[in-house]
Design a protein that fits this description.
The protein is an alpha/beta fold and about 300 residues long. It folds into three domains: about 5-85, Arc Repressor Mutant, subunit A; about 85-160 and about 265-300, D-Maltodextrin-Binding Protein, domain 2 (3-Layer(aba) Sandwich), CATH 3.40.190.10; about 165-260, 3-Layer(aba) Sandwich (D-Maltodextrin-Binding Protein, domain 2), CATH 3.40.190. The protein has eleven helices and twelve strands. The strands form four sheets. It has a five-stranded mixed β-sheet. Strands 10-7-11 form a three-stranded antiparallel β-sheet. The longest helix is centred in the N-terminal third of the chain and has 29 residues, at about 55-85.
């Protein structure tokens, strides 16, 4: 019995709707349905009525235990996180892909120079860890994209860049100086694992431009830039990114083509909401200051 499934059951019961629960949990609706089915198989009895969606008598009993178990798990995480953060002078900085382009190494270097007493550790994050590493206290701050919409985190915008599509050099549009959204929406895109948070999948697949429709998916999964590039080079799927991606990941057999009419997107530094740790506050202050100072010169803001 997984805690994640218990959480899903409670959210479905609160929302009274599988689709709304999926949106709240940043999961596919099919995943939410499967979580409930697995719990019902585990306990050998229906836990939810489907029409209307509400807890059965057995579901009500399980819900009471589920709330207690989840509360205990939260206390355990907080207790362990407190012990971990008690390690003197350590700041764990998550970095998804190339972070906020050239600003990421510049910020890390400046912080180490300004605070040599603090052990700054860079922690690579994959696409599925958009905010989870931060919320699970595996990192203290994180460079990610796009900006998460989540009341549990605070967001500092560091770069604003135009979008590109990453494709095989053999594909017809690879030689175009730029393309439009209409040119790329029908491409087969890389597959992302189901556990990938919805804000990131919407960003990568240009979901807003699709009117919410799912993209065509290629043949390979990817959770990091190297897997995206390997898939694109083989002609088995396209990816998308911010323009600075091309400067950090030259890869034989691929092309990065600007998408002229796609909305510009942010890379951001995220931290836990209400985190008053002086190391975190110092890092955020330095990061936002360097972004204002260096961003325009690095082509990381609109002209």
């Amino acid at each position: 019995m997984e805690l994640r499934r218990l959480e899903t059951l409670l959210v479905v019961a609160e929302e009274g709707h599988f689709g709304r629960a999926a949106e709240r949990l940043f999961l596919a609706k099919a995943t939410v349905t499967e979580h409930v089915k697995q719990l019902e198989q585990d306990f050998g009895t229906p836990l939810l009525d489907r029409n209307p969606v509400r807890l059965t008598p057995a579901g009500h009993r399980l819900a009471r235990h589920a709330r207690a178990l989840l509360a205990a798990a939260d206390l355990a995480r907080a207790d362990v996180a407190e012990a971990a953060s008690a390690e003197p002078g350590t700041l764990r900085v998550g970095v998804m892909g190339h972070g906020s382009a050239e600003l990421t190494p510049a910020i890390a270097h400046a912080f180490r120079m300004a605070h040599p007493e603090i052990d700054l550790r860079l922690v690579p994050l994959d696409f599925t860890e958009h905010v989870s590493a931060l919320l699970e206290h595996r990192v203290d701050v994180a460079f990610v994209r796009p900006a998460p919409v989540d009341e549990r985190v605070e967001v500092d915008v560091l770069t604003t860049e135009r979008r590109i599509v990453v494709v095989s050099a053999r594909w017809e549009l690879a030689d175009a100086p730029e393309v439009r959204l209409a040119d790329v929406l029908d491409l087969p895109f890389i597959r992302l694992p189901e556990r990938t948070p919805r804000p990131f999948t919407d960003y990568l697949y240009f979901t807003a431009a699709r009117g919410g429709e799912a993209p065509r998916r290629g043949q390979d999964d990817a959770v990091n830039p190297h897997e995206v590039l390997a898939t694109a080079a083989a002609g088995r799927g396209a990816g998308s990114a911010l323009e600075s991606f091309e400067r950090f990941y030259p890869w034989p057999g691929t092309r990065c083509v600007p998408v002229a009419d796609a909305p510009w997107e942010h890379s951001v530094l995220v931290s836990r909401a209400g985190d008053e740790d002086p190391q975190v506050r110092a890092f955020r202050t330095l990061a936002t200051g360097l972004a204002r100072e260096l961003g325009p010169g690095l082509r990381l803001t609109p002209a």
